[in-house]
Amino acid sequence: MQRNVSIQQLKDHVGQEVTLRGWVFNSRSSGKLAFLIVRDGTGLCQCVVEKKDETAAAFAAADKLGQESSVEVTGTVRADERSLGGYELSIRAISVLQAVDGFPITPKPHGVEFLFKHRHLHFRSRRQWHILRVRHTLIDEIRGYFNRNGFTLIDTPIFAPSAGEGAQTLFSVDYFGEPVFLAQTGQLYVEAACMAFSKVYCFGPTFRAEKSKTRRHLTEFWMVEPEIAYADLNDVIALAEDFICSIVQRVLRDHRADLEFLGRDIASLERVQKPFYRMTHKQAAEILHGPRARELLERDLAAKTARLSEIETAIKEREEKLRGQGIKEWQREKMNAELHDLREELDEVRIDVQNIPHHMKLAAEFDPNGDLGGSDETIISRLHDRPVFVTHYPRDCKAFYMKRNADDSTRVNNVDLLAHDGYGEIIGGSQREENLDALLERMREESLKESDYEWYLDLRRFGTVPHGGFGLGVERTLAWLCGLKHIRETIPFPRMMGKFYP
Ligand code: 4AD
Ligand code: MG
Predict the structure, then answer these.
(1) pTM (two decimals)
(2) What is the DSSP letter of 125?
């Protein structure tokens, strides 16, 4: 009788005959032996078919199976430390559901454009598989953390009647002839809910019509937003710190192998312990104006410029060799693959070399009354070996709902958490303005229509209390945890400016 097991379960079946159901990841044959790497969604397993009378049919099938053919393979499990995943299957029989020829994403390098146009197939590849597994656990831990700590989940609407974060980034939708907006945040609604349940959170997709094509911006992303009643800024910060530690520990516990595959500096994640660094926006401005920021970027520029000429030399060498005589086919393929990677890196480093002087200028001329830009956040977070809380931003560059600071009315009691290793903001939060008159004044400054926010103002009329919370973006957090350069790899089907297929 056929016993179906998953690759993850092979360890419990050593010496037994089992059937794996999956897809051909890779195959090669050496005349007497055929090797299939099969993947089944839980892992990879090398399957070996010997060419002999009893396995003649299986050998013939294995010999010509293309990448991503769907197969059921039956054979005996052997423990083998040298083998991928530690187990191997000696195949007796293969049943082919579909033999595939010409899967578009081969082990050869492809450009980013091509891969993301084929995203529906792309996430069968190894790197994407590792990343999305970590995403699963990150989301599980987000929910787990709040559920364990007495927070009630409150789902907030996606059709929103008014702006939550700032009118420039609203997507408008026709709602039976009336304009409504895709939610930029669930915050205003969790503020209402925390007055009913004390500690709450919402977790869902969030939309921003930012015209930014950066490695940190999606137009659709997932955000978790806890909100607590009877809380000030320090309570919000303490919650954020504890929450981040619990996420990082869980991912380190369950995904060390995935992070290693992705090349993440694990020691750096292990340093994520309380207390995080804490500074005011004013102190951040001083750092940006100071020598440490300038020296950091000068060192960068020197290193990148040196790398640029290294790459150019390496490209020239390979191009010359390829023009020469007597190169074997495998050498040609290897060099072409290397050239592809080198050219990609060349483009990246060129852009860096162009941008660094601009970032230096932005930092040196940083406006102490302005918001931190992406490159400013990168500088601050690279100058620290753990995450950094930056508090008390200028009121004018922040949302209307933030609590005005009691000692300095030009500032608000807000906080951004900058992830270290150069990742920048992953959390934005604040204490909320609970005073009706102060809130109305801010809304007038922002030209917000009072009538749109009547229900929200009611919260300040009926039992108002100090309260606050924050939002954490799943994708930026995952990019940081996995050490990814670009946010597009952190979500199964990314939505970015100019990109919504597939
Ligand atoms: O700082 P933001 O805009 O804060 C809010 O929306 C508040 N209402 C949250 C709250 O206090 N309840 O966004 C919070 C986080 C950011 O720190 C970032 O991680 C993520 O959401 N985020 C984005 N992620 C990807 N692409 C974008 N365009 C993002 N904009 C914000
Ligand atoms: Mg923010």
Answers:
(1) 0.96
(2) S
